[in-house]
Amino acid sequence: MTTKTAKGLTTALLLLATLSPALAEELTLEGKTIGITAIGTDHDWDLKAYQAQIAEIERLGGTAIALDAGRNDQTQVSQIQTLIAQKPDAIIEQLGNLDVLNPWLQKINDAGIPLFTVDTATPHAINNTTSNNYSIGAELALQMVADLGGKGNVLVFNGFYSVPVCKIRYDQMKYVLEAFPDVKIIEPELRDVIPNTIQSAYSNVTDMLTKYPNEGDVGAIWACWDVPMIGATQALQAAGRTDIRTYGVDGSPEFVEMVADPESPAGAVAAQQPSEIGKLAVQNVARHLAGQEVKPFTFAPAVLITKENAAETAADFLPK
């Protein structure tokens, strides 16, 4: 074998080695039907994750049966019953109240239908695709504590503790605060609601500013998602309270824009990538149906957008 031939063979083998993983990752859902049930799509995050699942199923050649429960627990239960009866090749469940859902997710297992979830940590799912909410909860809390200088009172919205991602973020926030005894949560905690989230948060914060009128009475406002923080920030602006900052999770464009505005009291947001999460969930379904091993969790990266780094980080989460 000549030196030239050997070099050519080596190059070909290296090219093959480089291409092999990509070829192995060629996924298909041709001839497959995938059911989707989402608790709701009125929130930017929920809609993007839901739409991405449908688009990726169709891109891979499958058929999507996509159902939106309109923020009604019993409607989602009915959707699950409907999907079980239709016997799709797999079901993807997105968010919702785990206390209500778990018995019905077990019924999906009992029917022999592979279950995958988006932002729902349950033992009944083969895989849950989500952000790393443990790190999100801790990182956002640490940013809040840093902005407070390690001392101050926090208003906390805690209306959705039964939603797994909210529970994780709240618990991580409380865990961080154990190390900072001079940062205290004001009791009783506030409750965020759906629908009318922004209006309700605006009203609640306005009332609390009347109760705590002095600078230093409240230093921060926190919620496990960012839609209530839009209303909270608006209430602070209306009251002229520049001494309080707001903190939330998801990356709704309205709140990202507030964080990026130097004049706004919005402090930080942990911005997720819902379209990527929805896409990855479908790819996990395709891998499983192709006989490949799928791990219990798939984490998509999130970005902490703060007042200090917004110039570099916010643009990707704002409308183009």
TrEMBL record:
Q: What sequence ranges are listed for the domain Periplasmic binding protein? A: 34-293
Q: Which CDD domains match?
A: PBP1_methylthioribose_binding-like
Primary localization class, coarse? other
One GO cellular-component annotation of the UniProt record comes to:
cell envelope
Where in the cell is the protein located?
Cell envelope
Which interval of the chain is the signal sequence?
1-24
Q: Which PANTHER family match?
A: D-ALLOSE-BINDING PERIPLASMIC PROTEIN-RELATED
Supply the name of the protein: Sugar ABC transporter substrate-binding protein
